Amino acid sequence: MSKRMENLPKVLVIGVLVLGAGSIASRMLVTKSDAAAGGVRVIIPARLSAKAQVGKVAFDANCGQCHGANAAGTGNGPPFVHPIYNPGHHPDAAFFQAAHQGVPQHHWNFGDMPAQPQVGDADLDAIVAYVRELQHANGIFYQEHRM
Asked: Alpha-carbon Rg of the chain, whole angstroms?
């Protein structure tokens, strides 16, 4: 048997491993919104919890137009995958308050956010779970807020 034929199984195994690793990496990585449009690079978790999966659907339907795919931001609204939205500065209740009452412009120059009365509390709870899982995948965790 030639040397080439002897090495064929090894080459095939290495090829399968490389392709598998590439496939896994592509699922874990990223969408990148246009930075000029206000977006940030977001690493997508390999798996979302069931609640966060529901939240992603609700986010895409109600928040994504302004806050971007995967909460990466757009030219119309800030990214939620940003340290300013860590739970120590913007607790979960802040998302509920913003959706129920709207919020005046304060951290960004996008203008005031209007209330979103079409988004119910169950959807908001799932949206917050989705945003928090995205934040965790991107190294954003609770940091005590100090003024």
From this structure: 20
Residue where the block lists tokens 């109600």: 62
C-alpha span between 39 and 21 (Å, rounded):
27
11 by DSSP, 3-state: which?
Answer: helix
pTM of the model: 0.75
Neighbours of 124 (CB within 10 A): 23
The amino acid occupying position 66 is C
- Are 16 and 54 found together in one domain? no
Domain enclosing residue 48, as ranges: 33-137
Convert the pLDDT of each residue in 132-141 to its tens digit: 999 999 999 9
d(CA 66, CA 77): 5
The one-letter amino acid code at 10 reads K
